[in-house]
């Protein structure tokens, strides 16, 4: 696949994935189209050699794998991990607000949101809705309003003369989204969702019981820069890695039917990963046990495996270069970044880092390194959590980006493609170099 084709597919994936539910559905569709078979956790699995399979949990996490020659213990798995969730504003359960004649929704902050960029954006709603059908059955469906239906207006500077010097944001008071001027006795959230269900094909929906709905920016992903050097989009952290990992898996699977490979994309990383479908839950380990077996076979398999946790890295910002360690400032479009932290906030070791450098050399991909300033704390990823839960050697890498956790982030237009080349080569390794 060419660089341009890869990026166009990435932009399309980002646009179609306003929530972890939609991202998981998009990946499931792409896997099915490439011949992967869907498995269900409440059924017995009958796996065959040289096949591709995938399984989802909570509609928001997904594991895809290939069986190869089924020699799991000696070959091990080549694994890539990412996460489907992004910091956002989530609609509260009883969200209705009626103030000064405006219909608003109360919002809850999900994850480490950079709040200021959410003001004055054209917002829409998307998520999963659970409802009863006219026949009394409990069902759920993904919905997306798509068009702009909400906005969080800024307070005019005339009413806050210190806005450019010292404006703080109170998420309880300042961020309820305005949906319009509607009569209080005519509209509520569940009625809006019921009408949207009907519009999107769930004509049997009778009553909305509950929902997971979030606001998102309707501005489409696209290129930025005089020479299209950059990609701008919401949710680059970490849907860029989800798409890149999936593209690498599909490319590797089409070229190699012998090596077992696995992609895991977990939800809830931005809030600590502790959930049934998060990296700090049992999803990956229970899936591996069903594929390989428990006890010694799985232990040997994991010793012969390696996990690459892919999550975006902080590119050195030209306006804030002093926020970076002077010898570890990754630049956009200069290759994927190895993320290192002495306190195990990243899972990288010198051994796993060396292997990734070797992989990048083999496919002529440049590689960079990120270490936080010694006087600043860094974030974390699913890497250390997965390593601790499963016991597999792991390293953390990612494409360098700006504005992480903003409503619109920025990445280099060459880096995801370069990372995909490295991951695809890694997934096809019949034997790790150290073995």
Keywords, please?
435 residues; alpha/beta; Aminopeptidase i, Domain 2; nine-stranded mixed β-sheet; five-stranded mixed β-sheet; 20 strands
Task: Provide structural commentary.
The longest helix has 20 residues. The two termini are 31 Å apart. The chain folds into 2 domains: 278 residues, Aminopeptidase (3-Layer(aba) Sandwich), CATH 3.40.630.10; 130 residues, Aminopeptidase i, Domain 2, CATH 2.30.250.10. Strand 2 and strand 3 form a beta hairpin. With 435 residues, the chain is an alpha/beta fold. The model has no long low-confidence stretch (mean pLDDT 95). The protein is globular. The relative contact order is 0.17. The strands form 4 sheets. It has a 9-stranded mixed sheet with strand order 1-2-3-13-4-14-18-16-17, with helices on both faces.
Indicate how many domains the architecture comprises.
Answer: 2
Distance between the termini: 31 Å
Q: Mind telling me which CATH architecture of the largest domain this is?
A: 3-Layer(aba) Sandwich
Number of helices: 11
Care to count the β-strands?
Answer: 20
Spans of at least 5 consecutive residues whose pLDDT stays below 50 are: none
- Main sheet, how many strands, which sense, barrel? 9 strands, mixed
- With strands numbered from the N-terminus, the spatial order across the biggest sheet is 1-2-3-13-4-14-18-16-17
Strand content: 25-35%
Oligomeric state as shown:
single chain
**Average of per-residue pLDDT values:** 95
CATH topology of the largest domain: Aminopeptidase
Radius of gyration computed on alpha carbons: 22 Å
* Overall morphology: globular
What do we call the CATH homologous superfamily of the largest domain? Zn peptidases
